Amino acid sequence: MTRAEQKLKSRRKLLDATIDIIASEGLDSVTFAKVSRYAGLSRGLCSFHFETKDQLMLEALRMLYKKYEMAWRSALTESVAAPENRLASMIKVLLSQPIADPKALAVLVAYWGVAPHRKTYLELFTESDLAYEESIEEVMRALANGREVINGMSLRAIAVMLTSMIDGIHVQYLIAPGHLSYEEGVQGCLTFLANFFPQFISIMDQ
After folding, report:
1. How distant, in Å, are the alpha carbons of 43, 118, 171, 200 from that of 107?
2. Which class for 150: exposed (0-12), middle (13-18), buried (19 or more C-beta within 10 A)?
3. pLDDT tens per residue across span 111-136
4. Per-residue confidence at 102, pLDDT binned at 50, 70, 90?
């Protein structure tokens, strides 16, 4: 392993340890000493990679968010797939491992739920979250046959409702493990979409 590879491996261990701590103990429990202990590395190495605890925590959040963003972008930009299949693929990817990993979801929910950290989340990711909704809306437009309002709801509102359902299922995974299966979550989202786009009816029966 090269020196650069060793640095990347150590950095990733520290980020993974930070995620473990936030998921199991909360945001306020993160310290350099604890992260170093979880990672099996020296505290000095932690300070070498990250100047402050806040920087370490934000880098862990960014790493998780980037995985999430790459997942939905990959599904929605699959040019050879029909629009309804792209949306179905996105739903399935976001509701399954590794994206719907309980530790990753716990970190995201922690940042959503605590006021000072929520402000940080919004400052960092509002633009990307809007792009997420707009990308879904654009795929829906290919299914809408020129309509901007279907069954009394705008395409934008349908897109926002879909992302809200996915977020809600993620929270359900955390607060009531096993009460809602992956298959039920996917079916619920597809059923919602079928109320506006008949193309999803055949997908639901597959």
Report:
1. 22, 12, 11, 32
2. middle
3. 988 888 899 999 999 999 999 999 99
4. very high
